[in-house]
Amino acid sequence: MKPAESTEPIAFCVARRARDGVWDLHVSRCPHCAGSHHHGGGHDGVPDGGGRTADCSRRRGAASSYVLVIVATFDTPTRRKAAA
């Protein structure tokens, strides 16, 4: 059986894990407004992409959504204690 195809536009994003362990997904170019947006990507070992409502929806007054495709991931290194 063939998987269902999405009719929503794709937004490419970069995932960065913050020091608190939460993934931040950064969309540098929204397919609706050409602006940049941030989304949470969960706490797990792998960031969660998938369907999201664009932040610009509130400003535009129309529901705009897209599918996040993660193209790169970066883990923030943990802080190291200074050598005594």
Q: How would you characterize this protein structure?
A:
- The chain is mostly beta strands.
- It has one domain (10-75).
- It is 6% helix and 38% strand.
- The chain has a 5-stranded mixed beta sheet, with no helix packed on it.
- The radius of gyration is 16 Å and the shape is globular.
Major sheet attributes: 5 strands, mixed
Number of strands: 5
How many separate structural domains?
1
Report strand order across the widest sheet: 3-2-1-5-4
Alpha-carbon distance between the two ends: 62 Å
Q: Outline, from the CA principal axes?
A: globular
Overall mean pLDDT stands at 84
How large is the count of helical segments?
Answer: 1
Descriptive keywords:
single chain, 84 residues, mainly beta, five-stranded mixed β-sheet, 1 helix, globular
What does this entry show, briefly?
The chain has 84 residues and is mostly beta strands. The chain has one helix at 56-60; strands spanning 10-17, 23-27, 37-40, 50-53, 65-75. It has one domain (10-75).
SSE arrangement:
Elements: E1 10-17, E2 23-27, E3 37-40, E4 50-53, H1 56-60, E5 65-75
Parallel strand pairs: 1-5
Antiparallel strand pairs: 1-2, 2-3, 4-5
